[in-house]
Amino acid sequence: MLRPPSEAGGGRFVYDRLRMTTVAASGVRELVDRICAGDVRALARAISLVENDAAEAVDLLSGCFPHTGSALRVGVTGSAGAGKSTLVDKLTRAWRTVGTSVGVVAVDPSSAFTGGAILGDRIRMHEAIGDSGLYVRSMATRGCLGGMARATAEVSQVIEASGKDVVLIETVGVGQDEVDIARLADVTVVVLVPGMGDDVQSIKAGIMEIADIFVINKADRDGADRVEKEIRALQSISGQVGTWTPPIIKAIATTGEGIDDLLGAIDQMKQWLDVDGRLRTRRKIYWQERIEEMVRQSLLKQARTHGLSAGELAGHAERVAAGHEDPYRLVPQLVERVFHAQGANG
User: Fold this and answer.
1) Which of 168, 151, 202 is nearest to 85 (CA)?
2) Nearest to residue 191, comparing CAs of 280, 313, 118, 90?
3) Phi, psi of 79 (to 5 degrees)
4) How far is CA 247 from CA 176, 265, 335, in A?
5) d(C-alpha 206, C-alpha 68), whole Å
6) Which residue in 135, 169, 319, 338 has its CB near the most CB atoms, within 10 A?
7) What is the dihedral of CA 76, 81, 87, 88, to 10 degrees?
8) Where are the domains of the chain?
9) What is the pLDDT of residues 36-57, one digit of tens each?
């Protein structure tokens, strides 16, 4: 228990630390209040804190969490060059036309020089500047796989807390097995284009299986009908009964053709999710996986705090690689060290 300076040795330090903690907590509460009130500057600052894993990030996310859960999370994924960004732009404009507030998280490849997002989807939406019902944030992958950045889920949560009706998450161009977006999104839109060589066959082992809605973009190209036939053939093979059958939308995102059909399909999917607790079931599965991931991250952070430095980890790796250390015995010992240190400090 922290005591006043007059009662504790080194009391000035203890008192100052308590005071700083109180001030920091007050600042986080104020920031959360401003986010919930729709303050764009506060939202931008909060996202930067989360992306950079700042000391305030955990308290900030905890403060935002009670204000989440009502927005529809829509993921848009597909291979590079499929037209995802143009599709997201047209979807956003359509939603804003009917008064639906939208937050966009656009995950872009990282610059090899700065580490930042090299495409910057905000450029594509320059006309939306000043629209209080729309917030767009570009994020760099920073080396993360799975089509998303490390903090995509947390950033989406902060944007949702700002009161947006829909949170659109656009992944970087993905391949066969980079399907993390399906765990985060309530509705996953997979964008395909004609002329991909083997078309659907080349990617069916991965992202084909996560689609709630298929969009064949650039449908004015030769081969669009063949892509549709291949999707329907795969759907007939799966033979699922009593589940959602992903609709197939043909679109030309540059002209806006097919956008109304896509909006209708998303609305139908939302209505389907609202029946029999399907949405809650999906989110329960997501949170089970997410909590496990958070526990792993927390344990690793605690291990580093209690002496597992990068140098020590490298030493263990070298000894394991040389066959001088057993990793299956080592890891339980490292975990035990963390819990022992926590017990000693508790």
Assistant:
1) 168
2) 90
3) -70, 160
4) 20, 7, 47
5) 30
6) 169
7) 50
8) 11-64, 69-274, 286-345
9) 999 999 999 999 999 888 888 9
Q: How far apart are CA 136 and CA 47, in angstroms?
A: 11
105 φ, ψ to 5°? -110, 110
- Say whether 109 sits in a helix, a strand or coil: coil
Q: Is 42 helix (H, G, I), strand (E, B) or coil?
A: helix
- Residue 207, class by beta-carbon neighbours within 10 Å (0-12 exposed, 13-18 middle, 19+ buried)? buried
Q: Which residue has the higher pLDDT, 240 or 48?
A: 48
- Distance between CA 237 and CA 227 in Å, rounded? 16
CA proximity to 212, closest of 254, 256, 153, 271: 271
User: Tokens representing 260?
Assistant: 């109304």
**74-83 pLDDT tens trace:** 999 888 888 9
pTM (2 decimals)? 0.81
Tokens of 218: 């650039």
CB neighbours (10 Å) of residue 49? Answer: 20
The widest CA-to-CA distance across the chain, in whole angstroms, is 82
